[in-house]
Amino acid sequence: MDRFKMKYKYKQADSYVTFIPTSEEFNLIGTIKGRMIVAFDSNYLKYGFKETKNFRGDIYFMYLIDSPSKLENLTNAYKLYYMAKYKGSLFHAGISTYPEVVIFATTYNKPEIEGFRNLSRGEWVKEVDASEVEIIPIKEEIDLSKYLPQEDK
Fold this sequence. Notes:
By secondary structure, this protein is mainly beta. It has helices at about 5, 70; strands at about 15-20, 25, 30, 35-40, 50-55, 60-65, 75-85, 90-95, 100-105, 115-120, 125-130, 135-140. The longest helix has 5 residues, at about 5.
């Protein structure tokens, strides 16, 4: 596997949801109006997506999750993040440019493992090669009903 392909071995840490009518997985976006998903295909208009434009005038299609009936079209909502097991300890991991992995230790005390640098108070980081760690994807289920407007709960 070449280095370019390896860079995309891991899915971006983010929130996701599956839109049932098309079985497509979307990024779940949080906005001031609530949670939503965005498509760039006008065929999604038939599923209740609304056409809108960004500040540059580009058209996209938004599905604002603002009512219980909209939840019926969604499944498998989750937040994805990564942990890394490094030298016997478990750390939060940021995977931005595979094969490098940034591991985070959230503690006010300097980690006992050498090579961590202090990022800010209580946050220590160390860059390691992916071959030095066991990368563990963590999926936390998201209850989308928590994000509905109060009057719709």
